[in-house]
Description:
Blueprint: H1 3-13, E1 18-19, H2 22-29, E2 43-44, H3 49-62, E3 66-69, E4 88-91, E5 98-102, E6 107-111, H4 116-125, E7 128-129, H5 142-148, H6 155-158, E8 165-171, E9 177-180, H7 193-197, E10 206-213, E11 215-216, E12 220-228, H8 231-245, E13 249-256, H9 257-266, E14 280-288, H10 294-307, E15 313-316, H11 320-331, H12 333-340, E16 342-344, E17 347-349, H13 355-369, E18 375-380, E19 385-392, H14 398-418, H15 437-440, H16 443-456
Parallel strand pairs: 2-4, 3-4
Antiparallel strand pairs: 1-2, 5-6, 6-10, 7-11, 8-9, 8-10, 12-14, 12-15, 13-14, 13-18, 16-19, 17-19, 18-19
Helix pairs in contact: 1-3, 8-10, 9-12, 13-14
Amino acid sequence: METELIRRLAHVVGDEGLVLDEAAQAPYVEDWLGKWRGRTPVVVRPRNTTEVAAVMRLCRQSGTPVVPQGGNTGMSGGAAPDDSGAQVILSLNRMTRIREVDPVNNTMTVDAGVLLADVQRAARDAGRYFPLSLGAEGSCTIGGNLATNAGGTAVLRYGNTRDLALGLEVVLPDGRVWSGLRGLRKDNTGYDLRGLFIGSEGTLGIITGAVLKLYPAPLGHATAWVGAASPACIVSLLSRLQAQCGERLTAFEMMSARCVDLVRAHVSGAVCPLEGDHPYHALVQLSDVAPEGLPELLERSLAHVLEDGLIADAAIAASETQARSMWRLREGISQAQVRAGKAVKHDIALPISRLAAFIDEADAALAAEFEGLPIVNFGHVGDGNLHYNVLLPPDVSQDDYARLTAALNRRVHDLVAQRGGSISAEHGVGRLRRDELRRYKSAVEMDLMLMIKRALDPDQLMNPGKLL
């Protein structure tokens, strides 16, 4: 890269806004999973939207590709540079201002670099609630959440990140700024530009600010752990609880017995609340601003399905400590997978009515074609999102890992497509699923996406090699 460009970038963001040392660049050039590592001549760290716009104008003038980056906690390689050494990383980690909290309008306006945990904290301080919750909430940023349309554990009640944002501020590839920070719940004045940039993975522009929805803070929770014989029973349980508990049903997580066994074996202190063997488990949580009667409602609802034989057993948390222990068992699955082997991961979504049939079909197909490979199946069943993973031995060779990954991806994703599902539910496409996209999206969909990309980024400078 020309020294002149770096000099001009320093003039915009100051010397403290540039990371030039190779060792200091390490956290920026490698994704947190360690799957992708690239090179960059410079990491640029603007302090505000004006500086982001100036950086983009300089990069466009010089034809320099830009990789936008938030917390760099993505699962699909969408924020890592390639190994050409020609791509500038534009990190928003200095843009951490909470611009406004409006408890009357139930909104919060923030910089894109604000950590998700800090947004949650600011909402609590204002007596409100921001429901997006992820395992990486202490290190992921709102901009990254928006760029990938992150999901999390509360999608069932509150929706994805797309549903939690009312307005955006975006710097376009040519340096112009779209100021769409409107805290409106109704605005029929043209195309939904907000929705266009959410989930675009930094390929159309750089989200620099957002107006987020806030909610009344839940004052009570009721949590239960359930054992059942099959995925079909779990899906039926979801339907019954939705009918009996309504919007109080906040979370509904499913995991196979193998997931529970893995966590108990590899995560210290993990205990299953139920005795006996249950092929499938569910973690259920109710919440409400009026806490009275929640445990009783959950107990009555589960008693009815127990009487009907839909589930085999259930345990209701009698304290916050017991509830945290149940969540620890669910949240320990990812850690346990890492310790047990190398997982081939599938972040898939299906219509809830087709989940059970997919699991049965996929289990049978993989048992026949990939004998002996354990399946680690868990997910947010309330929104149709499964993490249908296959565990390979820790000592598998790189060649065998690559070969099995390609074969497993094709088999699982073909079955997902046949049942009207998606090969990426909440992790994004990035590099990981980019080359598979054409197989599972129609030619018309791909053409429309490419037309939008060319219209907004004709020089192909925004996050090249990702998504498209």
